[in-house]
Amino acid sequence: PLLKHHSILNNFSANVKNCHSQAMAERVSLSSMLAKSQNELPAKRMKDSYLEVHLPLGSEPQLREKYLTYHNTVRFGRILEDLDSLAVLISYSHTYNSELKRSPLSIVTALVDKIDMRQHVIYPDCDIKFTGHVTWVGKSSIEAKIHMSQYRDGAYASVLDATFVMVARDPGNKRAAFVNPLKPEGPEEERLFQEGEANKSRRVELSTASLLKVAPTQEERTVVHGLFLNTLDTNTVSFRSRVLPPSSVWMEDAKLKGLEICHPQERNIFNRIFGGFLMRKAYELGWANACSYGGCRPSLVAVDDILFQKPVEIGSLLMLSSQVCYTQGTYIQVRVHSEVFDPLTRQHNTTNIFHFTFTSDRDVPNIMPKTYGGEPVQTGNSKKNLKNQIYIHVSKFLSK
Ligand SMILES: CCCCCCCCCCCCCC(=O)SCCNC(=O)CCNC(=O)[C@H](O)C(C)(C)COP(=O)(O)OP(=O)(O)OC[C@H]1O[C@@H](n2cnc3c(N)ncnc32)[C@H](O)[C@@H]1OP(=O)(O)O
């Protein structure tokens, strides 16, 4: 009987694989429906993509279990998943073509530009409302803004504002595909569109400001040098001999790592790992690190620049590493880096970088880097250290 079960299971997984390859082959056949240029697509209005979605946590208690933390608050990782799905849905509404039965576009999350928290606590027994629409488009990219509010004491109160950048690809997710132009109507929509345009320029500027390409700014240099002088051993005065100042923690001692095996259950409609799942896992690891660093349960203040660099394939080994990279008073900033590891070729590839800012109920120790890369330099591994680009966050944090 065991053997029989085994063969049933084998058949089942072969069937699942076949269904997916068949679905993918069907998707690729939609390529002929793609627009050859953006001009041939009709311009859409912001209201064409407007969506309002209710999450009835208050009125449907059976839903709560999925969202509940042990401490009777809402799991923010679940909210990240919902925001991601909603951003996809908004993008599909913008690109909807009533003449086609199916959309030829694969829409993927490229960036969570920012999420600003308007309040720290999300109540598990109050209804939640999400509203959002497209605010800007490029040729193949779409900016979508989502507002989340919660019903309490007879009115909806703001919880957060999120900005996503989604990218349209061909059905096989190989190349960029054109999206409908956007036609703002009235001064408010014009303002949102101009803001989107400015965001696009800022993103391009930021992507060229990596420490791997350019030197740190004067402000960053001053902060970094100040930290270095603070840790200098006055007896030996050598680069290597360093002393940890009081109420401080070395950066190398403020890490937390995790591993995810990417099972098919977490795949999206394009047979890759769902972006929301990656965000939830990274958030939970980042939160656990901030919690252990601050010695109390921290609250999330902001999410910045979640960059989806490469898709995560089903079956990958996903390594997540979180690092406390900046602290100030009660604030803790955590960066989570995720990479897929191929155990056969032993190759590592960065797929995502996440930034979370938390606040604690008390002042936290100061985080102290020992080196430019944030970690002690090990022979033969200095390139990997530099990759961490810890100090880019210093200026980001100070400019908030
Ligand atoms: C039908 C209704 C269904 C509803 C279902 C609901 C539930 C749905 C659930 C399903 C959930 C599914 C959702 C998921 O789970 S998606 C899963 C998570 N996301 C990923 O796996 C994506 C991984 N990353 C990539 O594949 C690439 O890096 C992408 C494709 C993103 C870009 O690759 P590449 O750089 O080579 O592309 P390009 O040079 O051709 O540029 C193309 C455009 O992209 C713009 N760009 C690129 N990067 C950025 C950036 N960082 N900030 C801002 N913009 C950026 C760029 O400016 C250009 O814009 P434009 O000038 O053309 O305008």
UniProtKB/TrEMBL annotation:
It is found in: Mitochondrion. Transmembrane segments: none annotated. The keyword Transit peptide applies. One of its GO terms (molecular function) is carboxylic ester hydrolase activity. Its main location: mitochondrion. Coiled coil: none annotated. Residues 49-172, 252-364 form the HotDog ACOT-type domain. GO terms for cellular component: mitochondrion. PROSITE patterns: HOTDOG_ACOT. InterPro entries: HOTDOG_ACOT, HotDog_dom_sf. Keywords: Hydrolase, Mitochondrion, Repeat, Serine esterase, Transit peptide. SUPFAM superfamilies: Thioesterase/thiol ester dehydrase-isomerase. The keyword Lipid metabolism does not apply. Belongs to the acyl coenzyme A hydrolase family. This is Acyl-CoA thioesterase 9, tandem duplicate 1. It comes from Oreochromis niloticus. The gene is ACOT9.
